[in-house]
Amino acid sequence: MARVAEDDERAFSELVRRFQGRVTNLITRVLNDRECSDDLAQEVFVRVFVHRRNYRRGSKFTTWLFTIAANLAKNEIRRRVRKRHWFSLDALQEIVNDSAIQLADPTEGQETVLQREQLQEAVGRAIATVPEKYRVALVLRDIEGFAYEEIGQMLRIPGGTVRSRINRARGMLKRKLQPLLRREGTS
Amino acid sequence: MNCGDARRLFGAYWDDEITLAERDWLESHFASCAACRGEYETFARTVELVGSLPRAEVRPGLDERALARARRATAAPDRLPVGTPRWIPVTATASLLAIAATMTLQWMGIAPVARLNPARTTPAVTQPVLVHSADAPATSASGTDAGTAAPETLAPVAGTVPDSLFDHSADVEFILDPVKLRKGRAHTVLRLNPDVQGEKAVITF
C-alpha cells in the first residue's frame, strides 16, 4: 500500500489481484447479487486508489479496505431500498415466504435431498433477508472471519454492539434455515 | 441458570469467548437438556453453512478495469469537496472597483454620467424677464406681461421671427451660463454683458 500511495500503478494492480476475491465475496454475500458485485468491487479499488494518500501507515490495510467495501455494500442496499423497494417490508416478507417455501417444500419427498448447490443458494437468500446492519456484521464475521474488534472499527460501533448484532443475525438465520436443517437431519 | 441463559451463551460458546465456569455449566446443561442441545446443533450448523458458502468468482481483468477507472477518477474526480463558489470573490472585487471608481470621480470633480443626463433632470425654468430698450413699445417689464401683451403690438414681431417666442428686435438677452455642479448643487455664474441693459434672468436647474 505504501507503494500505491506513491502512485505505483503496478503495485496497485498487484493489490487488486490480492484482495479482489475477498472484496468481491463480501459484496456478493451482503447483496446476494453477483452481477452487481463486480462493479462494486471495482468501485472499492477505485476509491482505494483515489484516496491512497489518506491511508495512514501503520493502520491495518484490510480494516481500511473492508471499511470501504462494507460502506459501499450498505449504500447499495439503501439505494435499492429507496429506488426499487427491493427490500421494503413487503418485498422482504415476500422473499422470506419464498425462501420458506423453497426450504420446506412439502411436495418434496423425504428421500429428496436438496443438492449442495441448492442448499448454498438457499443460505445465500436467507442471508439476504437479514436486515442490513446485522447482515454486514454477520458476513464480516462468519464469512470473512474478521475479529469482533476489527469489525467494530470497520462499522464504527463498539465491540459489544458487534457481538449482539452478530448473535441476532445468527438467530434470525437459524430460524429461517431450521426447516431445511431438520429435513437434512432426518434424511 | 435456565435454558434461556444457556441459549444466550450459544454465540460466545461457538466463538470460544466463554469463561471456563460458563463452559462447564453449559456442557453439563447440554447433557441434561435435549432441547437446548438440539437448538445448539441447529445454531452450529447454521453458522457452519454460512461459513462454508463458496467464494464468489471474480471476473478476469478486474485489476485492469479498476486501474483504468482509477486513472479517470484521478484525472477528473467526480466528488470534489464543495468549496467556496468562485463568483463570490469576483463579485466582491467588481463591487470594490466600482466603489473606488465612483469615489475617484467624485474627488476629481467629474460627476457620474447619470447625473448629467438631461432626460432625467427636467429643468424648472422660471419665466425669463424681458428687458426692453428705450425705443421699444412701452409695456410692462415682466416677461409674463409680454406674453399677455396686446396682440396688435406683438403680432408683427412674431411674424418676422416665427421661431422665437420673444421679440428679438428688442434688446433681450438670455443669460444661460454653464452650470457647475459642486457637491450636488447647481451654481450659476452670471457674466452679464455691460452693454446690455436688462435685469438678470436666472435659470436654475
Describe the fold and architecture.
The complex is a heterodimer of chains A (187) and B (205). By secondary structure, chain A is mostly helical. Chain A is built from 9 helices and no strands. The longest helix of chain A has 28 residues, at 159-186. In chain A, 39% of the residues are buried. The model of chain A is unreliable at 85-90 and 98-111 (pLDDT under 50). By secondary structure, chain B is mostly helical. In chain B, 48% of the residues lie in helices and 3% in strands. Chain B has a two-stranded antiparallel ribbon with strand order 1-2. In chain B, α3 crosses α4 (34-51). Chains A and B meet through α2, α3, α6, α7 and α9 of A and α2, α4 and α5 of B.
Instruction: Label the structural class of chain A.
Output: mainly alpha
Count every beta strand of chain B, where a strand is a DSSP E run of 2 or more residues: 2
Question: Helix and strand succession of chain A?
Answer: HHHHHHHHH
Number of discrete helical segments of chain A: 9
From the structure above, extract its key features:
heterodimer, A: 187 residues, mainly alpha, 9 helices, B: 205 residues, 2 strands
Q: How would you summarize what this structure contains?
A:
With 187 residues, chain A is mostly helical. Chain A has helices at residues 2-5, 9-31, 34-50, 61-83, 89-103, 116-128, 132-143, 148-155, 159-186.
Draw up the topology in text.
The complex is a heterodimer of chains A (187) and B (205).
Chain A (H helix, E strand, L loop, with lengths): L1 H4 L3 H23 L2 H17 L10 H23 L5 H15 L12 H13 L3 H12 L4 H8 L3 H28 L1
Chain B lengths: L2 H6 L1 H6 L4 H13 L1 H18 L10 H14 L11 H22 L4 H4 L26 H5 L3 H10 L19 E3 L2 E3 L18
Antiparallel strand pairs in B: 1-2
Helix pairs in contact in B: 3-4
